[in-house]
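Hi Y.,

Following your request, here is the sequence exactly as I used it, all 372 residues.
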Amino acid sequence: MSAMKKSIVGFFALRIPMIFTLLIVAVIVVIIGNFLIVGGGHISWEFLSTEPRNMNTEGGIFPAIYGTVLLVLIMTLAAVPVGTITAIYLTEYARQNSWLARTIRFAVNTLAGVPSIVFGLFGLGFFIQTVGAQIDRVNWNQTMSQFHASLEARQSPVAGGKIATITEVQKYLESSKEYDWKEQISSLSTFPRGTEARVNDDIVMRFMDDKVSLKWGKPGLIWAAFTLALLTLPVVIVSVEESLKTVPKDIRAASLALGATKWETIRKVVIPNSITGILTGSILAIGRGAGEVAPILFTGAVYSLQGLPSSLSDQFMHLGYHLYILSTQSPDVDAVRPLQYATTLVLLALTLALNFTAILLRSHIRRRQITS
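Below is the corresponding structure, written out as tokens. Let me know if you'd prefer a different format.
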């Protein structure tokens, strides 16, 4: 090969990839630099630790930070175990050409290509309107059984079909020491014919039957996390499956030859040797899920929140959704642009921090495996 041909090959093999790499790095530096210049000066302890005020145009973003971290943690706890179990089944148990294995892989590949907004609609329809609503209905039926028993008690003004006013029923329920009927008392105040209407126990029960208390059948943190877990599941499954395949078959055969069962081999040999791959799947899931907004639009995120979610059924603020609202719904977009850039920096830093924590854990486990 002539010197000119060698130089041409070397240019295409080394110089062009290096040029494109430098261009990509330069674009990233320019983008982050722009964020730092416009929004860096707005980041302060008050901005990071206080609640939003005045239609999210003032104050801080602490509820959004808290909600994002909590959402990502619950999503990871939901997606990684399910994805790992699925990958173990596909790698260790399923025959590669079986219809079940092919069906699972087809489903995983299909999920990987579904738009994120579709996951949000699925979460609304399945988790909230089906699963959550059914849980609320079961809980409500149990509550109504206790409520009917209270109405049938001897001291009840409507016991045995007697007639009483709604006010008398409310006073009786307020005096109950066994149950707290505050919600039911409040519902009875909206009785169509007023609180002085005369009713019996059947009329009260028919009225209350439609007043199902929504706790799980509404958008909440748990349903948003489960929706994101479905979104990131293909990433986890593929990552863990590839990691399991890197464990040599000879090690598995040696474990089985020494008398270990298949499950003991998986638990004590295969999983410890592929734990770094499982953590890699977690890292990829965190990176994918932390910045997603479309799946949580219908499943739990809110525009503004003064307090913090105290249970899994509560709604929450999210940095990505907060940024979307600032960019599209703010009454003065130019005035809040520094807030947009500062929020973007916090979201990037938070995602990097979560990923970095998982990377440090993976590196620590890898070092322990090498030294042992």
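Residues 3-39 form the longest helix (37 residues).

Thanks again,
Q.
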